[in-house]
Design goal:
The chain is mostly helical. It has five helices and no strands.
Length: about 150
């Protein structure tokens, strides 16, 4: 019981960190983006990857070490829906990451670098789509916690 509590707590902390970082990226993308902001975005995005790995690690630990056990999750359609949504959000996070890295490279070569309005708009849309997907996760989790999907 204590292990389940610990794993759930770690899972939630990693989720909250991931969402805070995503919100930070969205906020930074809302203002003027210059070489300094590009550097901060790239560093923040690296932490996004760390938080996503934490979410995944804590979630897998809950599956294999938690009270319900892997058979519960294996048979639950809402669990698989959560995994699909999380994977889709993870896939959507790749283009902004690549964009931030490219912008950082360009900003290091030219301190007056500023991304194009079109590139900025594309990243903003992608971050918004990620946030929309993340909004589905607590709905699916709440159903799972109440025995739906089995």
């Amino acid at each position: 019981m204590a292990l389940e509590w610990l794993l759930a707590g770690l899972h939630f902390l990693a989720i909250f960190a991931l969402l805070a970082i995503l919100a930070g990226e969205m906020a930074m993308m809302g203002g003027r983006i210059d070489a300094e902001v590009v550097g901060r975005l790239a560093r923040l995005d690296a932490w996004y990857g760390v938080a996503a790995a934490g979410v995944l690690a804590a979630g897998l630990a809950r599956v294999f070490l938690g009270d319900k056990g892997p058979l519960y999750y294996e048979a639950n359609v809402l669990f698989w829906a959560k995994m699909a949504v999380f994977a889709l959000a993870g896939g959507l996070s790749v283009p902004p990451t690549l964009q931030f890295l490219g912008w950082r490279r360009a900003a290091r070569a030219d301190p007056s670098f500023a991304p194009s309005p079109r590139a900025i708009a594309s990243v903003r849309r992608t971050l918004l789509a990620e946030a929309a997907l993340f909004a589905l996760l607590p709905i699916l989790a709440a159903g799972m916690a109440r025995g739906f999907g089995a």
